[in-house]
Hints:
Keywords: ATP-binding, Cell membrane, Kinase, Membrane, Nucleotide-binding, Phosphoprotein, Transferase, Transmembrane, Transmembrane helix, Two-component regulatory system
Helix content: 40-55%
Organism: Paenibacillus pectinilyticus
Main location: membrane
Subcellular location: Cell membrane
Oligomer: single chain
GO molecular function, one term: ATP binding
CATH architecture of the largest domain: 2-Layer Sandwich
Shape: rod-shaped
Number of strands: 12
Radius of gyration: 56 Å
Amino acid sequence: MFLNPNKSILRKMLTSSIVTVLLGLCAVGLVISLFAKDYIVNSKSNEMIRQAKQVNLAIQNQTGPSDRLKEQLRFFDEAFDARIWIFDLNGNIVTTSSKDEVNVGKVVSTKVVNQVLKGEPTIWHQSEGFKEGMLSIAVPWGKDNDVYGGIVLHSPLKGMNETIAQLRETILWVTLLGIFFSFGVSSYLSWSITRPIQQIDKAAAKIAIGDYSERIQIDSKDEIGELATTINHMVEQLARVDLEKRQLNQLRHDFLANVSHELRTPLTAMQGFLEALQDGLIEEGARDKYYEIMYNETLHMNRLVDDITDLMKLENKEIDLVWLAVDVQAMLSKLAFKFQPEAELRGTFIHCLVDEFPPQAHADPDRLEQILNNLIKNAVKFTENGTIELKAMAVPSEGYVLITVTDTGIGISPDDQGLIWERFFKVERGRPVKHKGSSGLGLAIVRELVELHNGSIRVRSELGIGSSFEVRIPLYDSRPYVQPLVNLAGVG
């Protein structure tokens, strides 16, 4: 899955950059070369026109060939490094700056003669009569309005061609240097892009097989850096989702195993009793006892199904609370009265403390009663020959009602205190059989209901001393109480 170097971005970027630079520099070089050639020729032509006019100023008083004229022409030839011709009105060359008079008597082009006689400088390329090409210009020869003929200056094109060739060579070297520089810059840029892409590719390959441990280490703040940050964040999210999925699968597996275990025990017992009754193995007088056991097992299964249903609704957010002002102290008094007979069978007394200012909680009455019912039921279940204390007090400064259920029962070990909120966890494991019979879902439901009320719950417990559950539920009105609420009259 890693990048193929033959088709990688690195190769593509290098090729495109070098081709772009090469074409760009070649185009620029060609344009510069053409413009430079024109510029050099034009500059040289203008310079030669000025030189020809200087020659005319020196010889304008001479109307015909003479030794003095030849000497002057030779002087200007050496000074300007240019061959000089003088022609008459008919275009006949009458004298030159050369020591050999090979061009004397020859005729200048009629077109050149006509333009010169009009007073216009003329520029052309001359090769006839010379060993190499010449840049030639012609200006009128004369004084004021008297024109005797024309003055021609010839300058070798070789020097100008050499200058242009040197310019082109310079452009070539600059092009090669540009290609080399472009190769270096493109290599670095390509590497800076392909390296993180390879890291991203490596991370993606691991993600594809479910390995979320890989992280992309890129420090750049550009788009690739942002992409790497996004991918790292995505990997963390995928890892979290994968972990939650595994945990959910484990919870589902444990849940099904626990439900199966909880149902199997009473069903096995009921099956055995029914088979015994069906086969007539149980005497008539003992049948009522077996019927009672089967009835209790049926109640246990019903409670288990009800608890599972409540827990599923809570976890799926399917329970809507009816928010009302709830007199917590009155509710505790009612529950104390409800559980007192069962507690007395265990030699336990339930004591409900009465506050002068009974607090009101902002809660769903039915669900709050379910919370307190489970807590008090557990306290009664695990307390013998002791006391259970129920108390509710307002904490206006923090905006909640503190409800405590304290018992002097067998207590909970420190190792189990963090596990009692888990589904199907039973603190009575290893205890006498008479403590068994719960579904192990009560405290899990309690915690879910408390959190649904935007409250909190905690436990304090010591083995052999007892336990205290503290529930915090929001106050109906968090303002300080200024008068007692008279709605508990007659409740003790």
